[in-house]
Write a structure and sequence with these properties.
heterotrimer, A mainly alpha (about 325), B alpha/beta (about 575), C mainly alpha (about 280), A: MetI-like fold, C: MetI-like fold, 12 helices, disordered C terminus, ABC transporter permease (chain A), membrane (chain A), BPD_transp_1_N (chain A), cell membrane (chain A)
Chain lengths: ~325, ~575, ~280
């Protein structure tokens, strides 16, 4: 088990390295002068020679490529991701300010999504009939509504019409705990709906498939009660693929927060990312992409470990 | 052995029947649309008796057995009566059924790998069963679990409690499964093809265990099987089913000695009988090539007359990261002469299929040599492989998976001609496909059909036609009949023999079934764990085996004769008691 | 033949038929957009801004610049569907090839296709990778097709890989090799036809995902560039006026949800129709 964890983390580190290299290449493999491309925003815009020159200096693009690459890797390892074009603050500082807000949002949404999704999916798979139809209809709809549409509609209903929640913004936990939670709730709910849909669907189909397995019939032949057969011999076995799906979904949610934070004007990492993309603040974009990708890889390692734990055959 | 002699007629002893089934029909469907899969099935299982429910696939034997405990899928319903010690189970409520399951009636299922939950240890699952019917503390449950594992002779029972099903061998898993089934001290044990997934030696052990437990625990045994040998070995009474109906119901001795129904006769005739293929040969329905004493050995040793020559063959599968490589074939020598049929026999994991696959270049050779058509496969160039492919071809075990479901059978049969550039003209290939279909006794205009439109036996005929497309000098037959029902198996074997006589190809016939090999092989090679135990003339090997392993293998095969089986069992018990 | 009809009828419920009809309607209307709604989707008419749906001449009303909403929806659909189709096609070709090669050959090929390319791409949350590329190359239709084509390729690769692994274990692939099929023949004429069903299902799912992602990027102003019409962009600009007139966000929202939902339902129907495992379920 320990050797497996070590191996898995080793593979994860390798993946981080490849990802870092790709991000570096993404900017340097651009045909033509990367500084000019970055300053102009693709082929569409134009930039003054001065701004291009400034950019080149800021990014160290005048040095040889190998030196740039090593500088970049050394920077990442020592926690130096450069400085923002806009306010010249270190990128790491800015990211560390915003990261906790995003993590709080994602964790809350994931927990709600996983719990509600598994319960709904298990109920649909076990009882069938109208429960199944209802859950299936709900989850089909849930995964089809884009986050920005759902958030906007929630604001329209719960803020503008009913006035139950503020339309968006942020207060820190220290200044106003209740207000903090009230502001957290709508974006978290918005994010969790699609998560519920995916988890419920996955759980349902996994439960249905497991119910057909031979060992379920064996358990029935022992005279176990239906609820015990279900909880021990169906649900438990169904959780292995669900755990994998949830892991992937968490990663996707790390991306979807971009939209939720934008809709609710929530000061998380992703809102910063969008601002930086719009303002072409490349060092900040690069820093955030690195942080989120590393988080994503870490989550996937965690999922693999859970998978090992759930299925003795691969232990 | 008093159980083996039928004492009374079924009508007179209904009082002592543990299980009494009358006019049972099982129907599948929903709403107003119900389709019956069994019709008015009636039989009894009396105390201390072993009743075998026999039939081919689709006969409804398993459905009937499962309906006793209502373990059928949700879209099934039962009509008729099922009485357990006089109590009706068809109308019983769910709570009552749960009390019966696992306590009054235990079930052993066919495939212990899938019938046990892979995520729980054997101990956890045993505790589950025990606690379903009795309030037991954890130490009490553990102690009972251990007792049960000892009762089923599972070696090293303390360690097994903490192991997962995948860590046990097939036979050990089935022992664990039996321990769970008898944990409630049942009056009736239902065993649904309990040994079909096992090798013959493991099968013999499990069957012995079942009979031993039956007498010790005083259970009635309902045994579902397709194997007449197992029936002869185990049953006191036989119920033969076909297409959802009972066709014959008789005491075992009478059924084998004087079968009344035509289907029972047909079934018994189809069963290969190890050691007595001459007897079967006389049956008019089956034509068999007489196994001649042997042509002079000198002709076989002539190298120019050798079609397949395997020398000092070693095949190793590389171990995964950090594991030892697995030696599948370990210094094997064997030779197939022109026109010879050589049987390659062994249990699962003996390496027999690996050799067959290596002989057509599907598995790389680690060391040693395989020569086909004077080409050493280990060193063959692409062009040489092409000539090998025209000289050697293969019939696979499972006709359901060895034909491409997306290709018509005509295309499948003609494919070897196209891929090996034997016949470039598509029209001529199509004509050849039609000829080949006729050769295997199928209508020529079936070329446009797809595999799923054919039955298992028909598909295997297509497989044979494809293998013969290139007019091979040697045919590798890799368990070509083991996925088929006995009556179909007999017909396919007959076809193979007739074609072999007609076309004169040599054949390496790979099988786990000694009695099948006896019917068509002139020579036999016995494999065990990748090594040759013994090889030689078929009669010599099967009637006078020199090696202990071969002897055990032959002894383990149940033959369809209750008298022989009873003798054997007595001998086995005596030798067990003596030691 | 009759049984085939019955199978199709079994896989398609009323809801799924409706979904199919909606997708077809959307395709037809977007192709014929200039004929159906002759109004220029970019033509501003400040005098008639923010008209409610149902106004004569503007069936779905007008936006804050007085542009016809129906025209913008249908012209938006054109761009939306073209991008999604392009991206799905790119992803299907790249992904299937990777999965087929990785699954069939295993070993080094598997490492290169599934681990090195597949896992690395999956190590980026989709929206994040899209934003990185947009920052560097700028927004626009071609960027979107390229980035989403790459993003969704691992999904195809994983499915085809898994399917190839299980098909490879079946004896008919061994049979093809044993009867002299060359590697390319075995791969493309034997394995590929037997893994197409999940590819088709995944294609429909990826269409839905692509529309979801694209409209999100357009909502952020980083997808289709304004003033060109896009559904996400319409929701973004309607947000400011939704307090007075909810239809500004509801009309594009409903269209985008229905479209994604329809492609999703279509995928479900196709799965029931094509997936042998799903079919096995109802034979008993």
């Amino acid at each position: 088990m320990i050797s497996f964890i070590a191996k898995r983390i080793g593979v994860g580190l390798g993946l981080v390295f490849v990802v870092l290299t790709l991000i570096f290449l993404a900017i340097h493999a651009v045909p033509g002068d990367p500084a000019a491309v970055l300053a102009s925003g693709g082929a569409s815009g134009t930039a003054t020679p001065e701004s291009i020159e400034r950019l080149r200096e800021q990014l160290g693009l005048d040095k040889p490529l190998a030196v740039q690459y090593l500088d970049y890797l050394a920077g990442v390892v020592t926690g130096d991701l450069g400085s923002s074009f806009r306010d010249s603050r270190p990128v790491v500082t800015t990211i560390l300010e915003r990261l906790p807000n995003t993590i709080e949002l994602v964790v809350l949404a994931c927990v709600v999504g996983a719990v509600v999704g598994v319960v709904l999916g298990a109920a649909a798979g076990r009882f069938g009939g109208w429960v199944d139809s209802l859950v299936t209809a709900f989850s089909s709809l849930a995964i089809s509504v884009p986050v920005y549409v759902l958030g906007t509609v929630f604001i329209l209903i719960f803020s503008l019409t009913l006035g139950w929640f503020p339309a968006g913004g942020f207060v820190s936990w220290q200044t106003d705990p209740v207000g903090h939670l009230r502001l957290l709730l709508l974006p978290a709910l918005t994010l969790s709906i699609a998560f519920i849909g995916v988890t419920a669907r996955m759980t349902r189909s996994s439960v249905v498939e497991t119910s057909r397995m031979d060992w379920v019939r064996t358990a029935r032949s022992w005279g176990l009660t239906p609820s015990r057969v279900f909880s021990r011999h169906v649900l438990r076995n169904s959780m292995t693929p669900v755990a994998t799906a949830i892991g992937l979904e968490v990663g996707i949610m790390l991306g979807s927060t971009v939209l939720a934070e934008r809709v609710f004007n929530y000061p998380g990492l992703s809102a910063l990312l969008v601002d930086s993309v719009v303002n072409r603040d490349y060092p900040v974009v690069q820093g955030i992409v690195i942080v989120i990708s590393v988080l994503f890889i870490a989550i996937n390692i965690a999922v693999d470990l859970v998978y090992r734990f759930l299925d003795p055959r691969v232990r | 052995m008093p159980e083996n002699t039928p004492t009374a007629d079924s009508a007179s002893t209904t009082a002592s029947a543990v299980l009494r089934v009358r006019d049972l029909s099982v129907e599948f469907g929903s709403g107003s649309d119900w389709r019956a899969v069994t019709h008015d099935v009636s039989f009894d299982v009396r105390a201390g008796e072993t009743v075998a429910l026999v039939g081919e696939s689709g006969s409804g034997k398993s459905v009937t057995a499962m309906s006793v405990l209502d373990l059928l899928p949700g879209n099934a319903r039962r009509r008729g009566t099922i009485e357990l010690c006089g109590e009706d189970l068809v109308g019983a409520g769910a709570a009552r059924m749960r009390a019966v399951r696992g306590r009054d009636v235990g079930v052993v299922f066919q495939e212990p790998m899938t019938a046990l939950n892979p995520v729980y240890t054997i101990g956890t699952q045993l505790r589950d069963v025990l606690r379903a019917h009795a309030r037991l503390s954890r130490p009490e449950a553990d102690r009972r679990a251990l007792d049960l594992l000892r009762l089923v002779n599972l070696p090293d029972p303390e360690r097994r409690l903490g192991q997962y099903p995948h860590q046990l061998s097939g036979g050990q898993r089935q022992r664990a499964m039996i321990a769970m089934a008898i944990s409630g001290d049942p009056k009736l044990l239902i065993a649904d093809e309990p040994t079909t997934a096992l090798d013959v030696t493991a099968q013999a052990e499990i069957l012995d265990l079942l009979l031993d437990l039956q007498s010790r625990l005083d259970m009635a045994l309902l045994l579902i099987t397709h194997d007449m040998g197992v029936v002869a070995d185990m049953a006191t009474h036989v119920v033969v089913m076909r297409d959802g109906r009972v066709v014959e119901d008789a005491p075992t001795a009478r059924l084998f000695a004087a079968p009344e129904h035509a289907y029972t006769r047909e079934l018994l005739d189809s069963v290969p009988f190890l050691g007595r293929s001459e007897i079967v040969e006389r049956q008019p329905t089956i034509s068999l090539r007489v196994v001649e004493p042997e042509e002079p050995a000198a002709t076989r040793d002539d190298p120019t007359d050798t079609v397949l020559d395997v020398r000092d063959l070693v095949i190793r599968y590389p171990g995964r990261f950090g594991e030892k490589p697995f030696v599948a074939v370990d210094h094997v020598d064997l030779r197939v002469g022109r026109g010879d049929v050589v049987g390659l026999v062994g249990e699962s994991g003996s390496g027999k299929s690996t050799i067959g696959r290596a002989a057509i270049g599907l598995v790389p050779v680690t060391s040693g040599s395989i020569r086909v058509a004077d080409v050493d496969l280990a060193k063959a160039s692409r062009a040489q492989m092409r000539s090998v492919r025209r000289a050697a071809s293969i019939v696979f075990q499972d006709p359901a998976s060895s034909l491409d479901p997306r290709a018509t059978i005509g295309a499948s049969i003609a494919a070897p001609l196209r891929w090996n550039d034997v016949e470039k003209d598509p029209r001529l290939r199509a004509r050849r496909a039609r000829e080949l279909l006729e050769l295997v006794r199928l209508p020529a205009d079936w070329v446009d059909r797809y595999p799923h439109e054919l039955s298992g036996g028909q598909r295997q005929r297509v497989g044979i036609a494809r293998a013969l497309a290139v007019r091979p000098s040697i045919l590798i037959a890799d368990e070509p009949t083991s996925a088929l029902d006995v009556s179909v198996q007999a017909a396919v074997l007959r076809l193979l023999l007739e074609l072999q006589a007609e076309l004169g190809f040599s054949c390496l016939f790979i099988s786990h079934d000694l009695s099948v090999v006896e019917r068509l092989a002139t020579r036999v090679v016995v494999l065990n764990r990748g090594r040759v135990e013994e090889q030689g003339d078929t009669r010599q090997i099967l009637h006078h085996p020199q090696e202990e392993y071969t002897r055990r293998l032959i002894q383990a095969v149940p033959v369809p004769d209750p008298v022989v089986q009873a003798d054997r069992r007595r001998l086995r018990l005596e030798s067990a008691n003596a030691s | 033949m009759l049984s085939r009809f019955r199978r199709i009828a079994g896989a398609f419920s009323v809801v799924r038929w409706t979904a199919l009809a909606f997708v077809l309607l959307l395709v037809v209307l977007s192709v014929l957009a200039p004929i159906v709604v002759p109004t220029d989707p970019l033509a501003q008419d400040v005098a008639n801004r923010l008209l409610s749906p149902g106004t004569p001449g503007h069936v779905l009303g007008t936006d804050e610049y007085g542009r016809d909403v129906l025209a913008r929806i249908l012209h938006g659909a054109r761009v939306e569907l073209l991008i999604a189709l392009g991206a799905s096609a790119v992803a299907a070709v790249i992904g299937s090839l990777l999965g087929l090669v990785g699954g069939y050959f295993g070993g080094v090929a598997e490492f290169l296709t599934m681990r090195l390319v597949g896992d690395v791409l999956l190590a980026f949350p989709p929206v994040i990778l899209a934003l990185l590329i947009v920052t560097i190359y700028g927004p626009g239709e071609w960027t979107l097709i390229a980035v989403m084509g790459i993003l969704f390729a691992p999904g195809f690769a994983r499915i085809v890989y898994g399917q190839t692994l299980s098909v490879k274990r079946l004896e008919y692939v061994d049979a093809a090799k044993a009867f002299g099929a060359r590697t390319a023949t075995a791969l493309f004429r034997v394995v590929l036809p037997n893994v197409t069903a999940p590819i088709i299902v995944q294609f429909s799912l990826v269409m839905a995902s692509a529309i979801l992602l694209e409209s999100g990027l357009s909502y952020l102003g980083l997808g289709v560039v304004a003033p060109a019409p896009s559904w996400g962009g319409m929701v973004a600009s309607g947000q400011r006026y939704m307090g007075n007139d909810p239809s500004t966000i509801l009309v594009p929202s409903i269209v985008v949800v229905l479209t994604i939902l329809s492609f999703g339902l279509l995928a479900d129907a196709l799965r029931d129709l094509l997936d042998p495992r799903a079919r096995k379920g109802n034979h008993a």
